[in-house]
Automatic annotation (TrEMBL):
It comes from Mycolicibacter acidiphilus. The keyword Oxidoreductase does not apply. Pfam families: Transgly_assoc. This is GlsB/YeaQ/YmgE family stress response membrane protein. It comes from the Bacteria.
Length: 99
């Protein structure tokens, strides 16, 4: 990995959206709850919220390679978080304990 690629990787992973960290955490929590309903998990609300926050970070990072996620606003952040949380719940279901 060259220096330019490493710099771009770090820039993407640290880019904040226009909603800020608190908004991102709230969107992640709501996204985890929505993703838990969509995926019909039985992990529980707390786990779904944690998965939502982690999924929001993963979804935001992955989408940043294709779209400008920094200026997306609240609804785009929520959409990204739900998408990331659903993917993460799917992976947990695939490789983890049965939900």
């Amino acid at each position: 990995m060259n220096v330019l690629a490493a710099t771009e990787f770090l820039a993407r992973s640290s880019t904040l959206t226009s909603v800020g960290w608190i908004g991102y955490l709230v969107a992640g929590a709501v996204a985890g709850w929505i993703a838990g309903i969509v995926m019909k998990t039985k992990y529980g609300l707390v786990t779904d919220v944690v998965v939502g926050v982690v999924g929001a970070l993963i979804g935001g990072f992955l989408l940043s390679f294709f779209l400008d996620t920094a200026g997306g606003g609240w609804w785009f952040t929520l959409f990204t978080a739900v998408l990331g949380a659903i993917i993460l719940l799917w992976l947990l279901r695939l490789f983890g304990r049965k939900a």
